[in-house]
Design a protein that fits this description.
This protein has 256 residues and is an alpha+beta fold. Helices cover 38% and strands 20% of the residues. A four-stranded antiparallel sheet has the order 2-6-4-5. A four-stranded antiparallel sheet has the order 8-9-11-10. It has a three-stranded antiparallel sheet with strand order 1-7-3.
Length: 256
Amino acid sequence: MLDVLLLKFGRRGHDCAPISGLAQLGLRDRHFSQDQDLTREGDRSANVMLLTEGLAARYKLLSSGRRQITTLLVPGDFLDLSSFLVPRRDFGVVAVTNCRTVVIEHEQLRRVCEVDPSATHLLWTETSIEAAIQREWLVSMGRRSAKGQMAHLFCELMVRLSAVGRSERSAFHLPLTQNELADVLGLSPVHVNRVLKELRHDGVIAWSNYWIEILDWQGLAEIAEFNPAYLGLEAPVPAKPVAARLHEQAPAPTSK
């Protein structure tokens, strides 16, 4: 149940033994349907959840109902590790696709950290990298162009998904509509559509059937000014694009 988390820690060069003891503590798994809330802002809980399958998103809602997605969560990510110290959540998490999670009680985490203090180091590293991702997203929304912001998101997702074996050669699955991508980037759906067209016209990506294929990794990384150091992972070297699948250049889906 923890394989994807251990894989990610291993890719960062960490000894996974301290945290692997969690697998012996009778963990529960839960399944969530697409668009279902995994947790809501203001919820209190005595556990944290680890995403093992699917794509989820942390979000904040304004009183007007407008939504800002603040983080995309991929397999191997904790949904709410901060609740270990601050039980009341200040964000919601929604399932972008059907999702599967592992539920880890706070007491189970505490027990593992007491037995081996180096487990605390692993969890602290995880929260530090979460904070680094948030800083990069803040820089993107504040200072990168819309084109650079989208390019940076695609580079980041390629690295994060590759680390947990969820990419395919030079491509990864991104089941977001343009409206949802607008919620991620803080742009209008019309602007998202325009930027996607620019990146495709530049020949650095293709998008079809919810798959992003990176046709020119170096070119995309230059547009994004992307440096993967903040992720604690090496950037993959995407293989040559698979010829026929994504080169059709069909428009990105606009609704589910």
